[in-house]
Every structure is written in structure tokens, then in C-alpha cells.
Amino acid sequence: MARLKDIAERTGLSVNTVSLALRGSPRIPADTRERVRSAAEALDYTPNHMAQALVSRQTRTVGLLLTDVTSPLLTQVARSVEQELKALGYVTLLAASNGDPEEEDRALATFRARQVDGMLVYPHDHSRLDHLRRLRLGGMPMVLLAGERVDDVDVVRLDERAGALCATHHLLEQGHRRVGLVDGAHLHGNPAKADGYVAALRLAGIDPLPELVIDPEGHSVGHGHAAFARLMALPEPPTAVLTANDRLALGGLRWCQENGVAVPRDLAVFGFDNIEYAGYASTPLSSVDYPADDLARQAVARLMTLIRNRAEPPSPELVRIQPELVLRQSTAASR
């Protein structure tokens, strides 16, 4: 591998001048910087980031921990985060917990071993956060991308409770009184969507019915298909259903198509996240929009603030991004 010394010998400059030129220092004349860059390209020079990290005590890397790498939404978030970080000269290290707390712990340990400058984390279980709190108190800049307020840790997230409340309220305004919910997250420390659903019902003077809340036991299209089969087998099935994500809703739409249930005439379906496929379903799906680009921008900006002020970090903040409803053909007035 070519070294700074090799470029210096080729250009007749000092190693220090070469180093400054490659970093774009204004102290070096433009023509000299260009001469150094040309020599570096000719020698196929690659910067030694490990050596630079030893000097600067920064690796220019950020760890991004997702809960499910197969999720279209989280893939979109990862893409937005990677673009934001790349524009700032950072590299993204990606890992997924896959719903397993042990895998989450291993991913965090890997980030630490790689000496990342900071972490962006979707926690698997919002009620199990002490390990993340300890990392933050130990000096690791960190921003959570989901959950409620956490002592000592910054959070930038979509207000999922507000999104579920607005979606349920919309269905109630359309005349529905038996509204189902397909969401198992409330059983695993993530109650925001279920709380919003219940709040909307109570505001309308409707008592929530436990039989109308189904745990899909997963997040995929197949899990949604099975959950709708259970809901619609009730002696008095719902006339509208809110799902925790669009994949569950798409599975529900497929079940309806297979079983002669017309959407929205017989059953209104409301998704969550507004992934690309939602607008192209056989019946275009109403959904709560998840602004991945905005969330990535705000989360990365906050993490950069924490990295710059690592010695004396500012007080933790909770940023709730307000959701918007995207209304399509899958929701309409009850018969």
C-alpha cells in the first residue's frame, strides 16, 4: 500500500505538507493540493483510517441498530441515516437485533469494539433500557429512534400514540363502532399505538373490547393474514381494523380478497408507516405516514451535537415528530 511518504517522495514535498493537502487544508496552495491529489491517485493511495483514529480519537463511524433488517420502513430509515452521515464524512455500521435481546447486546458490544463515535438505536423492548442507559452514562453518544422519554438518553421518534389516535379517530368519524387492532407490541414494552387506539375509543365514548385486539405474533404479511382470519372469525367481527404496520395490513387485504370480504365496503383497513407498497396494493391502503428522511435528519443532527460535546454533553432531549394520515381507498364510511 502506498504511504504518505511515497507521495512526498513523488512530489518532492514534506510528509506534513502532503497530509495537509490531502485533507484540503487552505494553508496549502490550490495548485499544490491538486499536484498531491494527482500523485495519490497515481499511486492508488488509500488513507489509513485506523492511524487517523489514533491521532484524532475519532473513527468517523456511527453504529445503527435496527430491530428487523427485513422491514421496508427500517430499510428506508437506514438509507436516510446513511446518506445523512455520508454527507458529514461518517461511515454507518449496520446491525439488527431481530427481536432478540441477546443479539441486541452482541450488536452493541460489536459497536463498542469497533470504537464507533456514536450510536443510533431502535431498542427491541422499550421496557428494557437499562443497558442503553449505562452506555450513555459511560460516555457513549447515543440517540434512540423509538420509545418514550428515557432518563439520561436522547430520543428522536415518531409520535406513534398520536398516529394511532388520529387513525382510529378517522375510522370512528367514518361511522365505525367496532374497530379492531392488530398489534402485539404493547405486550413487549411498546404500548404507544395501543394507547392511542384506546384513547380514541374512549374519547368517542366506546369501551375497548379485548377480543378486538389481536397479537399477530410477528410483523410480516403472513402474520397479518393469520391475524385477520382470527378477527373476522369472531361472532361479531369488526367493521374496521387498524394495524401496527403496513405489512400486517397488506396480509389482511389478501385475506379479505380470498374470502370475499370487500374493502372498504365490508371492512375498512388502516395501516401504519406508509411504505411504498401501501399505495400500490390491490386496494390502495390508508396509512399513518412515517417521515423517515425527517427523522434521520433530526436524529443525526442530535447525535453530532452529542459527539462534539462528548466531554460535557447537553441535557437529554425527547423529540416527537408529529404524524400525518395518508388517506386512500381502503377506508370509507361504515355501511
Essential attributes:
single chain; 335 residues; alpha/beta; Rossmann fold; 3 domains; 12 strands; Peripla_BP_I; transcription cis-regulatory region binding; DNA-binding transcription factor activity
Explain what the structure shows.
This is HTH lacI-type domain-containing protein. Keywords: DNA-binding, Transcription, Transcription regulation. InterPro entries: HTH_LacI, LacI/GalR-like_sensor, Lambda_DNA-bd_dom_sf, Peripla_BP_I. GO terms for molecular function: DNA-binding transcription factor activity; transcription cis-regulatory region binding. The chain is of the alpha/beta class. It folds into three domains: 4-47, no CATH class; 58-158 and 292-321, Response regulator (Rossmann fold, 3-Layer(aba) Sandwich); 160-290, Response regulator (Rossmann fold, 3-Layer(aba) Sandwich), CATH 3.40.50. The chain contains twelve helices and twelve strands. The chain has helices at residues 4-11, 15-22, 30-42, 49-56, 72-87, 101-113, 130-137, 160-173, 192-203, 221-232, 246-258, 292-308; strands spanning 61-66, 91-96, 118-121, 142-144, 154-158, 179-182, 213-214, 240-243, 268-273, 286-289, 318-321, 325-326. The strands form two sheets. Strands 2-1-3-4-5-11 form a six-stranded parallel sheet, with helices on both faces. A six-stranded mixed sheet has the order 7-6-8-9-10-12, sandwiched between helices. Strand 6 (179-182), helix 9 and strand 7 form a beta-alpha-beta unit. Helix 1 packs across helix 3. The chain is elongated. The mean pLDDT is 91.
